[in-house]
Amino acid sequence: MSILQKIKNTVRSRSIHVSYVDVGSCNGCDIEVLACLAPRYDIEQYGIYVHNNPREADVLLVIGSVTPQWVDKLRDIWDKIPEPKVAVAIGNCPISGCVYARRGTLTSPPVEKYIPIAAQVPGCPPRPTEILNAILSVAPLIFKDYEEKQP
Amino acid sequence: MRSFVYYVREFLRPEWIRKFFFARTAPLETPSYFKGYPTRTEKECTGCFSCMMICPAPGAIAVLRKKDEWGPEVYPGHCIRCGLCVEACPEGVLSSGRILDVTDRDRTAFASWYHLEVDDNLCMRCGNCCVSCPVNRQIDPQLAGTGTSASDEVIMRIEGGRVRILHMEKCTGCTTCETQCPNRAIRVARMVEGVQLPEAEA
């Protein structure tokens, strides 16, 4: 392993930039994600920074069952994120549609149909600790030795 | 000047520097009373489907038969962790957080019954519902044809040219009447209500 790679690993483990997108949920999961920012959970002490620009992000938190308006836009957002990138599904909605998975609703879950999802956090809504654990456990898997893993 | 020196000295203390740069909240543990996904207790499931019927999330719980044994199965991607299945189960097969302790302490439970309703505008008095009902048939084997009956114990009978429901509480919710009704006039609904059981005799 080159020294450059080591430096990259160290830096990336302490600087995970997260962007979240709500593709049609009830806002419950948004509130839980925002609770991660609050002093009680405080994700910045783990080196995770939340901001809403996909071009600066490493991790995309996808919230909500997919509504028709989001189908193409979600793909655009995913394409804008620079490599290495990872998408995490937050809550039941991106996994199964949760309470929206009924006849007559304008949703088309799961979100895996549109973008590749690396981790899922089930729950309606998931607890902030669960979101935090998911990000912290999936980020090293993707970002560590990213350049060496490339074919 | 003195305050300036004071601040510099204060901020150069190793303890202060350590606290300032490496402060961390303690890792948060999930308290034991948080409602997690329902887990099985060692109680035996009778396959009454109370949990499935009360579940508000689509596809979250299924009562499956495995090796001659009924048992509920919870699907994490669908479950919303409301804990209603835990409360609704009469046997206490599922457990989540402290729900079982609280229901035991407060003696709360869900009572369920079946509500029958006949829309008189749609009903054409054929008596199919009264004749097809298996409970009716058991109570009054004579009941046939037009759905009239001499017995007062039947769930429903035709009286004076219209369906009269006598004993709604005997309904088992099989919905045979619903399927046999040509006009969808009769409807069976499962009603659930939270109740507090009387105090146990000491």
TrEMBL record, chain A:
InterPro entries: Complex_I_20kDa-like (IPR052375), NADH_UbQ_OxRdtase-like_20kDa (IPR006137). Pfam families: Oxidored_q6. GO terms for molecular function: 4 iron, 4 sulfur cluster binding; metal ion binding. Its cofactor is [4Fe-4S] cluster. Keywords: 4Fe-4S, Iron, Iron-sulfur, Metal-binding. Residues 26-137 form the NADH:ubiquinone oxidoreductase-like 20kDa subunit domain. Transmembrane segments: none annotated. Belongs to the complex I 20 kDa subunit family. This is NADH:ubiquinone oxidoreductase-like 20kDa subunit domain-containing protein.
UniProtKB/TrEMBL annotation, chain B:
Residues 36-66, 70-99, 114-144, 161-191 form the 4Fe-4S ferredoxin-type domain. Keywords: 4Fe-4S, Iron, Iron-sulfur, Metal-binding. It holds the Pfam family Fer4_10. GO terms for molecular function: 4 iron, 4 sulfur cluster binding; metal ion binding; oxidoreductase activity. PROSITE patterns: 4FE4S_FER_1, 4FE4S_FER_2. It comes from the Archaea. This is 4Fe-4S ferredoxin. It comes from Methanoculleus sediminis. The lineage of its organism: Archaea, Methanobacteriati, Methanobacteriota, Stenosarchaea group, Methanomicrobia.
